[in-house]
Amino acid sequence: MHIFNSEFRSRFNGQSRFCATLAATALTVTALTFSAPLAHASALSSDAKASIPHDVQQVIVVDYRAMLNSSAAKSLKNRVIPPELNRLESALEKSGLKVDADTDTLAFAAFRAPHPDGKGSEVQRIVGIAQGQFRTREILASFVKDKVKVIKVRNYNVYPMGSTGMDVVFLNQTTMVFGDKDAVRAALDARDGEIANFLTDGELVSGMASVESHAIWSILDAKGTQTMMKSVLGEASQLADYDTVKNRMKGSHYTMDFSNGVKFDMAVNMSDTITAATCATLLKGLEVLKKTQGTEQEKAALDSTTIDSSAGTLTVSYSSSDGEFTRLLSSSLFQTVVK
User: Fold this and answer.
1) pLDDT single digits (tens) 271-299
2) Minimal CA–CA distance to 338: which of 33, 5, 79?
3) Which of 71, 140, 192, 285 has the largest CB neighbor count within 10 A?
């Protein structure tokens, strides 16, 4: 079974939905946010960026190394991390990788790729990238000892990770790429210039500069933003004029920090001020509805959320203490949005 099967894909997509719903419902969390107080910026290296194919829909980056310093972040990780990733972590640790000690930054990129048969519609793939100081000599020696059958892709040695259904390749001592075989192959092709990579998208690269100093950050293209906002708006997205509105969504980003409690910020760029104001009004209406249905704890979280618009940008902000956020993880509202 491949690690990025339908279950994991739905979890990954749910992470975008969750973060967006979070914005509308005051749940400040991203699906793969297992980070902590900002010890250093969770920026991606040029090598890592070059390994992301061009047609990226969303990139999520977290400061993995700092995870253990935040009780709220640890609680979040334990609740939302896909079991497949736990199995990968276990497999790598058996090979000599000290995940908590060696990994600084963990990133996931969802990108669109041609259909395998060359005829069907595009498919979404997900590639993972880990940065840190890896004991590559010991790890590779362990692969040889365990008789892991290497797959050659040009000058790269790609290693299948057993029952996880995932392949792993070390670009160098500081960068590891993992995912199903097609995602890893696309990442290597992007890095070598066989296909266009993320660095050729000037708009997304520029947008990254404004968020990569945060402990957790994500950027989405127009299509990714439209998918996220459709989930946020729920039944309101079924209105006849929603298609017109969604086509005015240009892109978005969100950040999360744990340096002083929990703080979440999201910005959605629209083509005009009226659309941004309209979406803000819809979200405020949803917030009022959630308040009538939620527990006292959930209502308090909603009161800590600010929704606004300015100069064509919809903004959502939320902040809480670590304790308040940890208690919110047990709420029915949280359980609903992470399904």
Assistant:
1) 999 989 988 888 888 778 777 877 777 77
2) 79
3) 140
Which positions ≥6 away from 158 have C-beta within 8 Å? 150, 151, 152, 167, 168, 169, 181, 184, 188
Distance CA 336, CA 201 (A): 35
The domain segmentation of the chain, as residue ranges, is: 6-337
207 touches 214 (CB < 8 A): no
DSSP string, 284-339: HHHHHHHHHHS-HHHHHHHHTEEEEEETTEEEEEEEE-HHHHHHHTTSHHHHHHT-
pTM of the entire structure? 0.80
What pLDDT, on the 0 to 100 scale, is given for residue 185? Answer: 95
Using DSSP's 3-state secondary structure scheme, residue 271 falls into coil
Name residue 113's amino acid.
Answer: A
Write down the pLDDT at residue 66: 58
| Element spanning 42, H or E | none
- For residues 37 and 103, what is the distance between their CA atoms, to the nearest angstrom? 16
Gap between the Cα atoms of 320 and 27, Å rounded:
10
Tell me how far CA of residue 281 lies from CA of 184, 264, 284, 314, in angstroms: 42, 20, 5, 10
Q: How far is CA 320 from CA 257, 263, 264, 302, in A?
A: 11, 7, 9, 11
Residues lower than pLDDT 70 in the chain: 1-42, 65-69, 72-74, 76-88, 118, 120, 234-241, 331-339
With contact defined as beta carbons under 8 Å apart, do 198 and 56 qualify? yes
* Side-chain half-sphere exposure of 277, counting CA atoms within 13 A: 5
3-state SS, residue 186: helix
